[in-house]
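Structure request: Tropinone reductase, Citrus sinensis.
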Amino acid sequence: MAQTNGCRGQSRWTLEGKTALVTGGTKGLGHAVVEELAELGAIVHTCARNEADLDECLREWKMKGFKVTGSICDASSRREREMLMDKVSALFNGKLNILINNVGTSIRKPTVEYTAEDFSVLMATNFESAYHLSQLAHPLLKASGAGNIILMSSIAGLVSLNTGNSIYAATKGAMNQLAKNLACEWARDNIRTNSVAPWFIRTPLVEPYLSDEKFLEEIKCRTPMERTGEPDEQPVRHLDDFLAHKSLSMLLFGELGAIVHTCARNEAELNECLREWKTKCFKVTGSVCDASSRAEREKLMKQVSSLFNGKLNILINNVGTNYTTKPTVEYMAEDLSFLMSTNFESAYHLSQLAHPLLKASGAGNIILVSSVCGVLSTNLGTIYAATKGAMNQLAKNLACEWARDNIRINSVAPWFITTPLTEPYLSDEKFLEEVKCRTPMERPGEPKEVSSLVAFLCMPAASYITGQTICVDGGFTVNGFFFRRT
Ligand SMILES: NC(=O)c1ccc[n+]([C@@H]2O[C@H](COP(=O)([O-])OP(=O)(O)OC[C@H]3O[C@@H](n4cnc5c(N)ncnc54)[C@H](OP(=O)(O)O)[C@@H]3O)[C@@H](O)[C@H]2O)c1
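Returned structure:
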């Protein structure tokens, strides 16, 4: 976790004084989330049905110095949810920063054997509780000025699993969709909503599955990392060397204590950055390098290898350009080869070159800085979009191929972020208005809003996340047809 010292700026990696409600906090993922938020300085309220378990947890948390209170509440009951939120409102003076809808359960049967009662228990516990608690929390989250909802979903809500859980899966699918809808509807209230979808994580809920050795073997066999996760690995729980261009990625790594090497083509700008970072006490060195040149990439990686004694923990493939946006029929062969070599080939080749160094580090990480243009169609150039689509797919392939080498690979896909690359677009007022109009948060992003995700993904806290493409987009990619009514 980021520490502060005389040289570092104010850390954004804290929840000091923020208020949080975590449902189902006495076991499994909810328990891990309560501890993570409390460690980060949040004041947490949690609930569970078993009073003895809750009291035991509260005693432990008190001993650890965490600010946690708790209520007995069955989150599947409408009345009890209302009582819970009344209590939370009184405790936190009508303001809540964080709602973690974590409660969930499963009943395992073939679909034709589920009864109406099974259906209503699962719906009420997993989905209705999250929906209704979000409704009840809305005024409190809005009043806080910076609200956050996390819906604890599951991989079962994304793909079909042979675990005899069709109702459970549907409730999780409903949560994933709810995250998209609330993200658009409540963005104006400064409430962000996200869904976290874990794969098998070792908790009491999944013990019946994991204690079956054959089943566990099947899971390991299908998981590139060849293991199940641990409760403290899921990403609600938060947060050592690399390469980048100055705009996006550099802002956070220095602050978190990494020893960073970066590159750019313009020597004067590079030297100016290095001077600034020195005054901030960051350990950053730099090389002049054109990442679109194969020979220069090889030279760069040799330099990195000798700087870091043949070991590299983090490679950020951030270089990319979109110098020209034309109709597809007008692109020349030179455009194709320039954009491909700058955006994609540089990332591909640097990843190849870095592989032995990342493997030697024992805990390697690659981030591909992609774009939402690689996720859906925009009119910002088909070559640029294809290079970014290639990066998103590369993240998946390398994640599977290099998991055994303890290297995680993820793709970060920003929407419009205020950097020199996007200046020509965003300085056009009409264009900017279009961007705002289609973005639930009604603004472009800031570089720090990307660099914090990049840093998080490289941290041990993200140790079970690999092969993902995560959009940093103010809700842009989930906005199907959510238009402004006023
Ligand atoms: N573990 C995994 O592999 C995995 C994977 C994907 C998604 N998830 C999701 O993650 C969430 C947490 O799962 P978990 O594995 O941590 O479960 P868990 O180990 O069974 O823990 C559940 C927690 O929630 C509480 N709880 C359960 N039902 C409740 C209710 N009706 N009202 C209030 N509290 C209730 C439990 O305490 P009491 O029993 O005392 O109420 C306990 O503290 C669930 O939504 C689950 O679907 C888990």
